[in-house]
Design brief:
- This protein is of the alpha+beta class.
- The protein folds into two domains: about 40 residues, no CATH class; about 140 residues, no CATH class.
- About 40% of the residues lie in helices and about 20% in strands.
- The chain has a seven-stranded antiparallel sheet with strand order 1-4-3-5-6-7-2, sandwiched between helices.
- The chain is globular, with a radius of gyration of 19 Å.
């Protein structure tokens, strides 16, 4: 029934308006397919609003703790945290090497952070998640709960993806390396 209503609405619109509608529908479709793919893999997704600032701060500490504030300003770290890798301030795996390494990581529980969203996702039962699952996503940071690695898929086709492993987690919010 809703499809018929939409079809009737679309019939009366000029092509210029249909172009705008097309891109909106395409975004909704991509989001649906992204979520359905995770659901089909058995991934349980939870949104974390309370305490997300601590997780972001822990990511910063784990992966950018030795980058000076001056350098962060120069590379526009506040705009995109992944600039520490695109500006080569941290050595990391890139492109296909990063994708392959991500696919090989143990990923039972992982955090998902987007550059511009005020919350974080927790993915549980995520062992079957692959790099290709995030190809439609932009400026997404994926990392384990102990902050020992991070995988980033950017919005720029010439930058990334990146995978970085840290040797130690120097920020300890609860004493066990986990903050939640």
């Amino acid at each position: 029934m809703i499809r018929n209503k939409i079809k009737k609405m679309l019939e009366g619109l000029p092509d210029e308006e249909l172009q705008e509608i097309f891109w909106t529908v395409e975004a909704v479709r991509k989001n649906y397919l992204f979520k359905k793919n995770l659901q089909d893999k058995g991934v349980v997704v939870s949104e974390i609003y309370e305490g997300f600032e601590q997780i972001v701060a822990a990511w910063d500490c784990a992966f950018a703790h030795n980058i000076s504030e001056e350098t962060k300003n120069v590379i526009h770290y506040d705009q995109f945290k992944w600039h520490i890798f695109s500006y080569e301030k941290k050595r990391c795996l890139k492109e296909e090497a990063a994708r392959h390494a991500f696919d090989e990581l143990k990923k039972d529980e992982i955090y998902i952070m987007y550059q511009s969203r005020p919350y974080i996702y927790l993915y549980e039962n995520a062992q079957d998640v692959r790099a290709s699952d995030f190809d439609s996503e932009q400026d997404i940071y994926i990392f384990d709960k102990k902050f020992t690695w991070t995988y980033i898929h950017t919005h720029e086709s010439s930058c990334g993806p990146y995978l970085y492993k840290t040797t130690q987690f120097e920020c300890d919010f609860k004493g066990d390396g986990n903050i939640l």
